[in-house]
Amino acid sequence: MHFTCKIQTPLGEMLAASDGSALTGLWFEGQKHFAAGLNLPGEAKKLPLFDEVKRQLEDYFNGSLRRFSVALRPHGTPFCQSVWHLLEELAYGKTVAYGELAARLNAEANRKTSARAVGTAVGLNPISIIIPCHRVVGAGGKLTGYAGGLERKRSLLKIEGVRLETLK
User: Fold this and answer.
1) Cα 14–Cα 2–Cα 70 angle in degrees, nearest 5
2) Omega before 78 cis (within 30°)?
3) Is residue 41's pLDDT more than 70?
4) Looking at the DSSP assignment, which residues form a beta bridge with residue 64?
5) Which of 21, 68, 131, 153 could form a disulfide bond with 146, CB atoms 3.0-4.6 angstroms apart?
6) Are β-strands 23-28 and 3-9 bridged in parallel, bridged antiparallel, or unpaired?
7) pLDDT tens digit sequence for 58-115
């Protein structure tokens, strides 16, 4: 059983999903991989978790929240989970290249992982903003790929104070 809730943000409507105790998804309406793995519409239910997600998103968008603190339970392969865990460690207002994430994963797991494989896992992130995949950029700081669209990625990085002129 999963529950859903629509959330209005300055960058458009989002769909939140929960298993009743943790957030399992947060997608911009119409983004790539929207609600992947869910049988929509799910049961609309007023959960305290959804109220907290809304509050924290409001604080993030107005610049007063730098780290989210809601329970997360994203579903994905073990490889995706390991990439998403690295994303959760990314500092507010900082960017990292796909290749650097691959190198970190290689060092942690003692295996060879490509930047492309990491990019695929980043793109499958089911919890936008809170698991900050928008902080990942291409080689040389190139502003690339975001399932929610590059304009949203630019907006999220701008909220976090990233100097966009340094990104290509």
Assistant:
1) 60
2) no
3) no
4) none
5) 153
6) unpaired
7) 999 999 999 999 999 999 999 999 999 999 999 999 999 999 999 999 888 777 888 8
Q: Classify domain 78-166 by CATH number.
A: 1.10.10.10
| Average pLDDT of every residue of the chain | 91
Q: Would strands 23-28 and 12-18 be described as parallel, antiparallel, or unpaired?
A: antiparallel
**CA nearest 71: which of 49, 41, 55?**
49
Domain segments of the chain: what residues?
A: 3-61, 78-166
User: Active site includes 5?
Assistant: no
Distance (Å, whole) CA 128 – CA 113: 23
Q: Which of 17, 23, 53, 133 is catalytic?
A: 133
Joined tokens for residue 163: 């100097």
CA geometry: angle 96, 100, 102, nearest 5 deg: 125
Contact 114, 124 (CB under 8 A): no
Largest CA distance in the chain: 45
Beta-bridge partners for 4: 17, 44
